[in-house]
Design goal:
This protein is an alpha/beta fold. Helices cover 25% and strands 26% of the residues. It has three domains: 331 residues, Aminopeptidase, CATH 3.40.630; 80 residues, Sandwich (Immunoglobulin-like); 77 residues, Immunoglobulin-like (Sandwich). It binds zinc ion.
Amino acid sequence: MLVYFKRVLFCFIILIQSNIVLGQNSSETKNESMAYSVEEMLQWDKYPTFEVYDSLMRGFALSYPTLCRLDTIGFSEQGRLILSLIIKGDTIEKQYKPKFFYTSTIHGNELTGYIMLLRLTQYLLYSYQNQDERIKSLIDNVDIYINPLANPDGTYFGGNNSVFESKRYNSNYVDLNRNFPDIVLGDHPDNETYYQNETLAFMLYSQENKFSLSANLHTGAEVLNYPYDCYNSIEKTHADRDWFIDICNVFMDSMPDNVPSNFFKDVSSLGYINGGNWYKVYGGRQDYTTYFNNTREITFELSNSYILPTNQLNNYWNYLGNSLISYIEQCKKGLEGFVRDSLTGEGLKAKVFIENHDSFHSEVYSLEEGGYYYRPILQGTYSITYSLEGYLPKTITNLEIYPHQMKRQDVFLVKDENSIKDFKDNNNDSFYLYPNPAKGYVVLDIEKGEKYIGKEYRILNSLSMEVKKGRIVGRKTYIDISEFKSGVYIFSINNSSIKFIKQ
Ligand SMILES: [Zn+2]
């Protein structure tokens, strides 16, 4: 696989070789280390001004309109855009795919990941368009979200034209990687009164997008730091600890042979560590995302220098580029499928729980829209229970997950007939609709709800269009639904409504 990577990299290397030499020989000033145009930036040996960063991100979306689009995560406290580029490729074969998220530089003065992610974005888009087999397979199977700069106010603390006065904090001197809700300490673990704009934006973005795997890129050390940060491994380990170690090993093994001998060795000789065993962090993004959003996130510390000398930027891409891609490729293996209603075929938001394995929010959920789920997991034999309130749970036993493969397991859940209590109206003064699911008619049974007699009822389809209305004539009202198409309908009287299914 490294061959493909090197082949496409080759043309970039030709382009940039002269700059590597120049960079090493000249005594650079801070001004010379900044790129003031996208063309200059694409030599990858300078840091971008904020305007160049913004233009570069827009440029990607404009240059590869069928492969990606630019998204706004939110705005910083000073009103700078927090951007994300969404790379989905141009294939329509797979509508639902695992979602992957890279985000860097939540600490504004930790810049290596900022440049690596910009360069990775360029590399992925260029390689996909040029039919690189590895990258095409990656993007066709994983939706990739890339946010190179999480804390723009910190990075451009000294103004938009320089990164050399950057700060760890945001413009309010808040450490954003201590500002998230915490597993141990709960809300506001840093004793700040508010979550910062940047924090809120990332919380919302994670909740909306349901990423399966992510990484938060830092500098100041060279190590991969996996969950949890708020516990050491004696206090608590993640249910997927072995899987975390496995993917850390893949990251390390994907580095080229020419990395310096002490590269990624300063914290642990293995190159990775259980976060809380290194030092404990409360309010960090990694634990928040992993615990509260059922994602899996690792913190990457990419270089000992906070701000790498610009003549090192190309070297670090050569050291790290292949590993950054290998990490995304982890989303190509594990378990995926769809959870649907057995009668309507509609997607369900069900819990996907691995028996004798999952704990402490390590389970995943299928998406309400489509019912798609993806569960990263090591090879092995598992029993998996799919469950949702109102449905009978279903367990698949002896499911084999093979190495380096994606296993597909679809499940249909059957409505639990005993869950009729779920169809009680909101006021709890009891009207029932049965049978549910129904074929030719439904009976509206008003147990204690005499107040409904004489009132108008309405039936809406799943698009909220009215398909029938009438009056409630007595304690039991028979309603003909034989003309209805199969599907889910909403029956409502006044402000109370219940769902029923036409078979
Ligand atoms: Zn950091």
